[in-house]
Amino acid sequence: MKKVTTLVVVCLSFLTFGQHDHNTAQEKLDPLNQGVCGNNVEMEAAFAENPELRIQHEIDQANFELEYQQFLNEYDPNARAQYVIPVVVHIVHENGPENISNDQVYDAIMRLNEDFSMTNNDLSNTVAAFTGIIGNTDVEFRLATKDPDGNCHLGITRTYLPGGGAHDTGDNSFIRDAVQDEHGNWPQNRYMNVFVVKSIVGSAAYTNTPSNWYSPNGMGGSIYMGHTVMGSIGTSYLSNRHILSHEVGHWLNLSHCWGPNNSAGDPGSCTTDDGVSDTPNTIGWFGICDYDGETCGSLDNVQNIMDYAGSCRNMFTQGQSARMQTALNSSTAQRNNLWQTSNLLATGTLSAGELCAAQFSSNVQTLCAGQSVDFLDESYHNITSRTWTFDGGVPATSTSNAPSITYNTPGIYTVTLEVSDGNNTATNTATNYIVVLSDPGEAIPYHEGFGTLTSIPDNENWMQISENTTGSWELTSLVGSQNTYHSAMLPNFGNTDGSKDELISGSIDLSGVNPAESMYLSFDYAYRKVSSSDNEWLRFYISNDCGETWTLRKNLYGDDLSPLTQGTAYYPTGPEDWSTAEVLNINSAYYTANFRFKFQFENDGGNNLFIDNINLYPASVSSISDQENTLGLTVYPNPVSEKTKITLNGAGEMSVITIHSALGQQIDIIYQGELTNGINTFEYNMSGLAKGVYIIKVESEGRVQTIKLVKE
């Protein structure tokens, strides 16, 4: 048959199908999710810029065809000669579902090995016409256990990147750059690099066939997989289990069954060929499994992994296996170096790998008393036993791979994991790893003026999560909103990476609030843009389960956050620089003993952000201060940490000045008697009162005036 040289950039987008009887229903893809291929985008762009690369590619493919024919002369499909290929999986994410689990990676590698060794459990579904030519490629793919410098490694890297690797087919240099900046270069003549990304516009996965137009010492010949088609668990589905095998087929110089294009179903493909003699000519099937289909005069091998038929695909042919083995024995792109003993030793894939790291993760690190944490042992390699120690936890020890531990007492606790491979041990002790908050939390009325804190975070009042590598939330003693010099500051000047930074409160007890009453929350903030085109987000979330789940309650975006600009690092200079935001949609579903709230800021090249004077109390209290101030009542300083002065106008009338809690209970009588004519001043010592919101109330001959006072 005709031998066609090609370099393939493939795109697929498959949904889940059920298995059907070979002679009954067809399996179809949803046409809205099929994707449109951007074939050869990366290659053609490179060739357009450097035409000599196309010449090099054509020479490489011509030489490969000669090598393939020579290999076929000696190829015995029943002979066994295993090739081991080191693999590293690079997960590029923005902390979303595209940051897939290690288990999903392991599953993808397992499915890949099944397809390349004829052990996939759907192989028995192969129609009789093709069972005699099923090919065992004798390739085993193993995650590397050493990095390019010889250091112990998991074989999986994780790189935070705004956008999570979302890109057009072939437009991937920024993804490689991000991974290389953080994890170094993984040469493709030593590793098969697989990038798992958030999304690929118009496709689900793609790669390049072997060629010398890209450097064997770089990462230009990598495989790119959308996270929803990587393996068969997690964010993927069982019907997608062969898609990585399809891409690896291209990576080892296989074309689609119909030849060098991505247009499955094109009648013109009957005149082209994939360069493999035992795959019948076909125009290809796009999401349809017609086991009796004949598109070019003979029965189509619709179940071939290199077709687009869908979930019924399950096999390579012997000719395809020989072609992939040829690629592994060819110097083109130096694929022949991958399986050499010296490289397997260097990448740690000759054996199961040495024990070198005790490592673990957990679903949460901050929780409320009485809640549980799910831990997972992620140590490597070849772990045979483990011992956990949980300071403050119940149970206090465990040997499980994934223990669930309950913490009943507020505090900050250490976790220790010791693992063994039977001969060696490794230990990881994480101090201050688990933060357990009080349940019930802090009583209301709640106020935070940051004047009594020593740091942010303090693992009691405030925690933070930062994606920003250049700065995170911190306590500043330079500026404040209430004529004070304390606030929470996010040093955001010059940040343009789109990262998010969260400032998260401790637990607050709202369980005693009347369900019929709304809650009032306010905070002051100061912010400037760097330029008018900056559009940054300040989001406010609340939680009724100690932070396990969050609900958005307020957005401040772009000009709503501030229309003003300042080209240098911004710091507010006076009260006029501060704005007050109110949150009035906290309903009774959130009146729990472990209520929490958080601020989330998403940057876009803007400036520093400051937050101060946070207040939370029943909404009925907030309306008190809205009354007309006919007595000229003022309180200063406000907020106050110790002594405050109360001033009001008098004309000899009898008056009573009292202080009340935010819920209305009278706490003390500040003054009772006759006011002098003119301005009256009274000093009151707040040092004996808890921090929070209070009400100063003046009753004077039928007139009542109140003002809110904050103790910090």
Characterization of this structure:
The chain is α+β, with helices and mostly antiparallel strands and about 700 residues long. The protein folds into four domains: about 30-345, Collagenase (Catalytic Domain); about 360-435, Immunoglobulins (Immunoglobulin-like); about 440-620, Jelly Rolls, CATH 2.60.120; about 625-710, Immunoglobulin-like (Sandwich), CATH 2.60.40.2550. The strands form nine sheets. Strands 1, 2, 3, 5, 7 and 8 form a six-stranded mixed β-sheet that branches. Strands 19, 21, 22, 25, 28 and 30 form a six-stranded antiparallel β-sheet that branches. Strands 10-17-16-12-14 form a five-stranded mixed β-sheet, with no helix packed on it. Helix 1 packs across helix 2 and helix 2 (about 50-75) crosses helix 7. It starts with about 40 loop residues before the first helix and ends with a strand.
General form:
elongated
Model regions low in confidence, pLDDT < 50 over at least 5 residues? 1-39, 623-628
How many helices does DSSP assign?
A: 9
Task: Supply the CATH superfamily name of the largest domain.
Answer: Collagenase (Catalytic Domain)
The percentage helix is 10-25%
The CATH architecture classification of the largest domain is 3-Layer(aba) Sandwich
- Cα separation of the termini: 85 Å
- Look at the structure and give the CATH class of the largest domain: Alpha Beta
| Oligomeric composition of the shown chains | single chain
* Number of self-contained structural domains: 4
What value does the Rg take, in angstroms? 33 Å
Task: Summarize the helices and strands and which ones pair or pack.
Elements: H1 41-49, H2 51-74, E1 83-93, H3 102-116, H4 128-131, E2 139-143, E3 156-160, E4 167-168, H5 173-183, E5 192-197, E6 200-201, E7 205-206, E8 223-226, H6 243-251, H7 318-328, H8 341-347, E9 360-362, E10 366-368, E11 371-377, E12 385-390, E13 393-394, E14 397-398, E15 404-407, E16 411-420, E17 425-437, E18 442-443, E19 446-448, E20 462-466, E21 474-476, E22 487-490, E23 500-505, E24 508-509, E25 519-527, E26 537-543, E27 551-557, E28 579-586, E29 596-602, E30 609-618, H9 619-622, E31 634-636, E32 643-650, E33 654-661, E34 666-674, E35 678-685, E36 692-700, E37 703-711
Parallel strand pairs: 1-2, 1-3, 1-5, 4-6, 5-8, 10-17, 18-24
Antiparallel strand pairs: 7-8, 9-11, 11-15, 12-14, 12-16, 13-15, 16-17, 19-30, 20-23, 21-22, 22-30, 23-29, 25-28, 25-30, 26-27, 26-29, 31-32, 32-35, 33-34, 33-36, 36-37
Helix pairs in contact: 1-2, 2-7
